[in-house]
Amino acid sequence: MSAARLVDRDPVIGAEELVAAMAPPPRFGDVRFGTYVPNPDEPSQAAAVAACSRFAERVATGGEKSLFKRVFGGKRAGGEDKPGLYLDGGFGVGKTHLLASIWHAVPGPAAYGTFVELTNLVGALGFREAVTRLSGHRLLAIDEFELDDPGDTMLVTRLLSELTDAGVHVAATSNTLPDKLGEGRFAADDFLREIQALSARFSVVRVDGPDYRHRGLPDAPAPLADAEIAGSAAAIPGSTVDDFDPLCRHLATLHPSRYGRLVDGVTAVHLRGVHALSGQDVALRVVAFADRLYDRAIPVVVSGEPVSALFTDEMLRGGYRKKYLRAVSRLVALSRDAAPLRTPGVG
């Protein structure tokens, strides 16, 4: 019996389900501030834990909508008057761990989602209905915050302005400082006022350090031969097997917010014929797909070229460089996770 294929799946997610699903993904379901292990060589990490903990406590104890602030424009004591906390840093330093820890520490209602999931929610519900649904929350946590096009800039600026004015606190992670959002991707200077207005609502916490996923660990396993892929999938029940190019074409037919549902219930993803990507649009879809695999801790097995070769040197020099490097980091970690699952002699 042949293995299941992702290209045969066409997941559909209703608007109500989108709202109900706004919680940390399985990989971050049990994380807390106490489970974050700061790198002793990077003082900013311990400082970030403390800052995030203080923010969560402030939201939990005083996160109700402040009539004083709305009516009289009052500020919180100690200069902590900004409704947002923004975790900035490289990939693999634990920003998502800290964001999920904030979410877990704040009594509900609280919502959590990636940036693309948030923009899709607005598209599914309509702007006004999304504001109505989210304005009743204490906290909105946004992972992988980025502005890749002018439409997103205008939409998110307006959305977060209305939510924070309504008393919602916002925590976000990104690889880009708030006032640099959109840089290298579109004519961000034309939207400078919107970007500056958005960044003014956040206090920035920097998280420095090397990628913890590869700290002291070996490189990813070498790709298998095409003929070995079927044996590996058979050794891991619940696996899928897809040829790389057809899968990339299938991803183009789905909104990225559906990629998580695409791989729900899958124990390992096998990809035949992996090679360097030639188009930026395809590469960005693969980044989003890799993020959802990582969220769900789904191991990846490939033939062809290694996952570290997915993005060309030109891509790695461009405006999406950090996204591509994050995807490589995560896919290498998932490739490493797959090795112990296969029976001896396979691969």
Protein model, in words:
It comes from Actinokineospora iranica. One of its GO terms (molecular function) is ATP hydrolysis activity. This protein is an alpha/beta fold and 347 residues long. The protein has helices at residues 15-20, 43-62, 67-72, 95-105, 115-125, 127-134, 150-165, 192-199, 226-235, 244-251, 259-262, 280-295, 313-316, 321-338, and strands at residues 84-89, 110-114, 139-143, 169-174, 202-207, 239-243, 268-274, 300-304. It folds into two domains: 31-210, P-loop containing nucleotide triphosphate hydrolases (Rossmann fold, 3-Layer(aba) Sandwich); 213-341, Rossmann fold (3-Layer(aba) Sandwich), CATH 3.40.50. It has 14 helices and eight strands. Helix 7 links the parallel strand 3 and strand 4. The longest helix has 20 residues, at 43-62. It is globular, with a radius of gyration of 21 Å. Residues 63-79, 184-188 and 343-347 have low confidence and may be disordered.
Overall spatial form = globular
Mean pLDDT: 85
Could you list the spans in which at least 5 consecutive residues all have pLDDT below 50? 63-79, 184-188, 343-347
What portion of the residues fall into strands of 2 or more residues? 5-15%
Calculate Rg over CA atoms: 21 Å
Largest sheet: 5 strands, parallel
Instruction: Determine the N-to-C terminus distance.
Output: 20 Å
Keywords: ATP-binding, Cell cycle, Cell division, Nucleotide-binding
Protein name: Cell division protein ZapE
GO molecular function: ATP binding; ATP hydrolysis activity
GO biological process, one term: cell division
